[in-house]
Write a structure and sequence with these properties.
Layout lengths: L2 H32 L6 H24 L9 H29 L5 H28 L6 H6 L9 H9 L5
Helix pairs in contact: 1-2, 1-4, 2-3, 3-4
């Protein structure tokens, strides 16, 4: 598969994992705002983002960036992942704080727009580039390298494909 197609697949997977994490984030945030943490949107958002980050790390590690050899040991990778997400959470919390506390937009809808709309969008842009260029930047796995025929000279491709199909590669 070509580099552009691999990147599109990765972005699609990142989006799918992000969507699940977003649903966890928004669901927990609203549940907390309507129950135990009424009137405390920053704390509710912090707890919701922590839960969503755990979901996102598992999805990113096991699916979105699964074609990359691990660059770090899992525990250290998890710490770095949570650090990148803390920066993303900081962006969401900043937009929520500005909207709620500085501008006085205190409705649940306004809190959702600021924290789960604007803040999450800006944080996700930062996260994707941080994951791709720093955290999950290990070498492509052996399987991915062996299945990429884009750099194989024309004519040699069919021999490559036969060896791959016959199970003699990898």
């Amino acid at each position: 598969m070509g580099k552009k197609r691999r990147e599109l697949v990765k972005i699609s997977r990142f989006t799918a994992v992000g969507t699940v994490a977003f649903l966890v984030d928004v669901g927990i945030f609203n549940l907390l705002m309507l129950t135990a943490l009424q009137g405390r949107p920053v704390l509710a958002k912090t707890l919701a983002v922590l839960c969503a980050t755990a979901v996102s790390w598992i999805g990113s590690r096991r699916w979105t960036f699964a074609d990359q050899q691990p660059r770090y040991r899992p525990a250290f990778e998890g710490v770095l992942f949570f650090a990148v997400n803390a920066a993303g959470m900081g962006i969401a919390l900043l937009t929520l704080w500005i909207s709620h506390d500085l501008l006085g937009f205190t409705s649940l809808l306004a809190d959702n727009i600021a924290g789960n709309g604007i803040g999450l969008l800006l944080g996700n842009i930062m996260r994707y580039f941080a994951y791709r260029s720093w955290l999950f930047r290990g070498k492509a796995s052996k399987r991915e390298v062996l299945t990429d025929t884009s750099s194989v000279p024309e004519g040699a491709n069919s021999a490559f494909e036969h060896k791959q199909r016959d199970g003699k590669f990898g």
